Amino acid sequence: MSTSSNDSLQQAHAPTIRTTSTAVTCLTALCFEPSISGLFSCFACVQWLKSNSEHKSAESVIAKSSRIYSSLWLGAIVLSRLLLKMDFLLGGCAATCAGFFSNPFDVIKTRQQLHGELLQRTSGAPATTTTTPASNPYSSVVRSFRSILRSEGVLGLQKGLVSALAFQFAMNSVRLGIYQTAENCEWTRGASPAGTLLRSIGWGGLSGVIGSTVACPFYMVKTQIQARSHGKYAVGYQHRHTGTLAALTGIYRERGIRGLWRGYPGIVTRTAVGSSAQLATFSTCKDLFGQFEWARDSVAVNAFAASMVSGFFTCVFMSPFDVIATRLFNQGVDANGRGLLYRSVADCFTKTLRTEGLHGLYKGFVPNYWRIAPHTILNLTFWDQFKAWRDLYYGY
């Protein structure tokens, strides 16, 4: 075969050689660099393959196959390694598992916070503007359980479960991930115990704000689905959602992207206060209890005690903002998308305090505590177990 023929053959197969070489190089690089930069390299590789596969011969088939297989390989490698490498994704999975067990208390908390909304509790007022414990099917945790079971069955206690788990995963992945990163970098450590506490509060609040920003639509849908009932058991404004996906698409279709973040100031305030109190008090309590022998002998006992104390302080500081967030998200809107009852966080706070008193801002305190404390324990238990499995099987 002549030299010119060899040159022509090499030139004809050059696109195939370049395509295959690029795919192999990209695969190899990502196997050794499973990171965000590797993910961008994956997309760049696919785009290069796409632009160099416009051939009508066998080379186009090879290029197309290389593009498909490299995309699948790279996507699987990057996703799996990121899932295994990043603690905040494990934290999101742990929060999701814990959310399954704490959701019934979340339903009860929502019903209690919305029952008697903007109604006075004094017996001397007209019947249309008052609410009494005798007429309240959610006056206590036990009575709330009975009312929900009687009106909606066992499944009523798990209303809004899909959106609640989606919220837990989205919010806690970001929240715990940022806070864990801050702890790993020792950004939460101060020169004194007071400085450490202040830094923990700051990072806890910041991580909560960012996490709630991402997960805001799921929280709104969760609240609206959990509030839905019938007859005397219905509380607040009744939205007619049939499911999480239907609710998200319906809200987006009617109100656009802004509609999905309606009530956003409420959840940001709630999560910033709650996250600061929870993460700061939990870390402080663990360090404090660690000085005693009974806590040093068992990590589980230490975590349990810290969670119970942390849950109480979290509820004390967060409950008023939790009530406000629930009411802002559940209220109906007019044709212009404005709330029918409240204009802002401050407006909701003043109206609730004026008509219902301090009691109105702490509605649902007991079920909220029994939701937060076990959720914290289960969340940390699942998180530690997931990280242990990751370390055992993948050597991290």
Automatic annotation (TrEMBL):
<dbReference type="Pfam" id="PF00153">
    <property type="entry name" value="Mito_carr"/>
</dbReference>
<protein>
    <recommendedName>
        <fullName>Mitochondrial carrier protein</fullName>
    </recommendedName>
</protein>
<feature type="repeat" description="Solcar">
    <location>
        <begin position="86"/>
        <end position="185"/>
    </location>
</feature>
<keyword id="KW-0496">Mitochondrion</keyword>
<keyword id="KW-0472">Membrane</keyword>
<dbReference type="GO" id="GO:0005743">
    <property type="term" value="C:mitochondrial inner membrane"/>
</dbReference>
<feature type="repeat" description="Solcar">
    <location>
        <begin position="195"/>
        <end position="288"/>
    </location>
</feature>
<dbReference type="InterPro" id="IPR018108">
    <property type="entry name" value="MCP_transmembrane"/>
</dbReference>
<comment type="similarity">
    <text>Belongs to the mitochondrial carrier (TC 2.A.29) family.</text>
</comment>
<dbReference type="InterPro" id="IPR051508">
    <property type="entry name" value="Mito_Carrier_Antiporter"/>
</dbReference>
<keyword id="KW-0999">Mitochondrion inner membrane</keyword>
<keyword id="KW-0812">Transmembrane</keyword>
<keyword id="KW-0677">Repeat</keyword>
<dbReference type="InterPro" id="IPR023395">
    <property type="entry name" value="MCP_dom_sf"/>
</dbReference>
<feature type="repeat" description="Solcar">
    <location>
        <begin position="298"/>
        <end position="389"/>
    </location>
</feature>
<keyword id="KW-0813">Transport</keyword>
<keyword id="KW-1133">Transmembrane helix</keyword>
